[in-house]
Hints:
Elements: H1 16-20, E1 23-24, E2 35-36, E3 44-49, H2 66-86, E4 92-96, H3 100-107, E5 112-114, H4 122-135, E6 140-143, H5 153-161, E7 169-174, E8 181-187, H6 200-210, E9 216-217, H7 230-243, H8 248-255, H9 258-266
Parallel strand pairs: 3-4, 3-6, 4-5, 7-9
Antiparallel strand pairs: 1-2, 6-8, 7-8
Amino acid sequence: MAWSAEEYPGDGGAPRDSLSNSCARAEWPDAEPWSCDLAGESLRASIIPGKGFENAKQRLSSLLSSEERRRLCQAMVEDVLIAVEACPLVDEIMVITNDPAAIELAEGYGALILPEPAEAGLIPAVVHASETLTEAGIDQMLFLPGDVPLVTPEELEVILDGFSPKGPGLALVPADDLGGTNCLLAAPPDVVAFQFGIDSFRKHVKAAQRVGVEPTVLKLPGLGLDIDTPDDLKRFMDRLAFLGTESHTYRYCVAIDVSARLLPVTGGGL
């Protein structure tokens, strides 16, 4: 299902700069609770998990060294931050991380930093963010993973511009194979129990239905591709080579000649 602007006119959101002076930033690592004093306004915050770049993307270890995987993850997160920062319908960006490199990168795009909770894992991190946003009076939470470098501001506008539930609501963008959840828009932020992991898209649909919410599902080409394996990386390189566009992720992959490395791994040319 896709929304049209005629059916669901967007409110445009508040300028992000105006929020920066009203929202208290959670300093890392000894932070006071993140808070926002814009009560009464409808606010949307995007959260991006930014766990340490070190030792990330282990399923690419047959193709890339530890340092190359670290730099690839950093490039992907930067591409996601660029898309979110350019979307006028996002009021605030929050990155959940304790990693100094991720903090420095996120702050360069005006993101707020929320320290990771003591319990490790994606679900505890997103729960922590949703609780923080709810306490701060944020109405809607847009979850984006850091490994969807093809996401565009236009795709985010499609999701946000059409989202105006009368009560609790949920929108989902599944991975291309309909397994994972590559974007989740929740109102309120804690509307469902998060189900990230294997087969999370279907689990999120069921979790929403259990609480009486019928989720809206959108398939979007950029958000549909998350990079975890050599095959994912090949699809990414193929798509950008065909489209003739670039990104931080693409430029880094070209710089380390990923295309040549993929030939024996995937058994096909780019």
